[in-house]
Specification:
This protein has 247 residues and is mainly α. The chain has eight helices and no strands. The chain has one domain (15-58, 67-245). Helix content is 84%, strand content 0%. Helix 2 packs antiparallel against helix 3 (69-97), helix 5 (111-141) packs across helix 6 and helix 5 runs antiparallel to helix 8 (215-245). It is globular, with a radius of gyration of 20 Å.
Length: 247
C-alpha cells in the first residue's frame, strides 16, 4: 500500500511537471512569435495612442472650467478594453490561420494548460501596451490641476483589472474565432461581461487619481470587487475552456 501511494504521488508530481513544461513551451512560443513579428503589440499600441488623440480632440473645446481628471479613469479603461479586443482577436486568428490551434488540439496537452498559457501571453502584451499608454495619457489629461492620489494605486488596479480582461478575453476570443463575424461576436460577448470589472476598475482608478479623505477605504473596496470578479471568472474560464476549445 505504501508503495502504491508513493507511485501515485510520483505520478501526480510527474503530471504537474509535464503540465508546467507544456505551459512554458506554449507561452514561449507566443512570446517568440510576437518578438519576431511585433504585430500584436504594435497594432495595440498604435490603436491605444490614436484613441488618446481622439479623446484629446473631443475634449479640447471643453474649456478651462472642465476638469478632465473627473472622467480620466473611464476614458483610460475604455481604451484598454477596446485595445485588448483588437489584440485578442489577432492572437487567436493567427493561431487558427496558421494551423497552430489544430496542432495544439492534436497534441497531448491539457486544455486548461493552453488557457493559462494564452491568458498569460495576452496579459503580458496588454501590460506592455499599458506601460506605453499610461504616461501619454497622464501627459494629455492629468496636467490640469494637481495629482492628489497615491501613485502606487495605479499599477495595482491596472494589474488586477488586466488579469480579468486577459482571462475572460482569452475564453471569449477562443469562442468567437470559429464564427464569421469574429470582431463583432467578441465585442458583443465581452463588453457585457466586462461591465462589473470596468465599474470597479474605473472607481479604483478615479480614487487613485483624485485622492480624497476616504481614498484608501474606497480604493480597497473597489479592489475587493475586482478580486472577487477575477477569482470567479478565472475559475469559470478554467472549467469551461476544455469544452470551448474543443467545440
Amino acid at each position: 500500500m505504501a508503495r502504491g501511494a508513493e507511485n501515485r504521488q510520483g505520478s501526480r508530481g510527474a503530471s504537474r511537471g509535464l503540465s508546467w513544461r507544456q505551459y512554458k513551451a506554449i507561452l514561449r512560443k507566443d512570446i517568440v512569435m510576437e518578438l519576431r513579428t511585433k504585430e500584436m503589440v504594435t497594432s495595440m499600441g498604435i490603436y491605444a495612442l490614436l484613441t488618446m488623440v481622439v479623446y484629446q480632440v473631443a475634449l479640447s473645446q471643453a474649456g478651462t472650467a472642465f476638469d478632465p481628471r473627473q472622467i480620466a479613469a473611464g476614458l483610460l479603461w475604455l481604451a484598454f478594453i477596446f485595445t485588448s479586443m483588437l489584440g485578442l482577436n489577432r492572437s487567436l486568428v493567427h493561431e487558427k490561420d496558421q494551423g497552430c490551434l489544430e496542432a495544439l488540439l492534436l497534441s497531448p496537452v491539457d486544455r486548461p494548460v493552453i488557457f493559462f498559457a494564452k491568458a498569460t501571453g495576452n496579459l503580458i502584451f496588454l501590460g506592455i501596451v499599458e506601460i506605453l499608454t499610461v504616461p501619454v495619457f497622464s501627459f494629455l489629461f492629468l496636467q490640469q490641476g494637481s495629482y492628489e492620489g497615491q501613485w502606487w494605486m495605479i499599477p495595482v488596479v491596472l494589474t488586477a483589472g488586466s488579469m480579468g480582461i486577459a482571462g475572460v478575453g482569452t475564453l471569449l476570443a477562443t469562442m468567437s474565432v470559429n464564427t464569421k463575424g469574429k470582431d463583432f461576436v467578441l465585442a458583443v460577448l465581452m463588453v457585457p461581461l466586462m461591465y462589473p470589472l470596468l465599474l470597479a476598475a474605473v472607481s479604483a482608478t478615479t480614487v487613485a487619481v483624485l485622492g480624497g479623505a476616504d481614498a484608501g477605504s474606497q480604493f480597497w473596496q473597489a479592489m475587493a470587487l475586482i478580486g472577487v470578479y477575477d477569482a470567479i471568472m478565472l475559475v469559470a474560464c478554467f472549467g469551461l475552456y476544455e469544452f470551448v476549445i474543443g467545440a
